Amino acid sequence: GNGTARILILGNSFAGIVNSYLIPLLRPIAKEIRLFSHHGCRILINGTCPEFSIAFPKVLQQMKPDATWIISSYNPENLHSYFADNYAHPTTELMSLLKPSY
């Protein structure tokens, strides 16, 4: 990238935690990085947070990001300690952690 990307990160509190690790990795390619998250809301999965589910499409429409990451976890136990333990290679570890599980 040439530093002009607009990136939106959507999700629950897991997205908020991961956001602090993503920003240094995305900053070289992005002019704007926004986080839109709500604790306990697994958007696109269930209807537990109708206000958030209604609001995030409006955020997408208004921001018009070049890339949108949806990051959500049901129970991110020990996430902070995971990164603390694996910080020697944060990029590799983060990408490994964020791979979809099928």
From TrEMBL:
Entry keyword set: Membrane, Transmembrane, Transmembrane helix
Transmembrane segments: 6-26
InterPro entries: Acyltransferase_3
Gene Ontology biological-process annotations: polysaccharide biosynthetic process
CC annotations in GO: membrane
Record-given protein name: Uncharacterized protein
Organism annotation: Pristionchus fissidentatus
Lineage of source species: Eukaryota, Metazoa, Ecdysozoa, Nematoda, Chromadorea
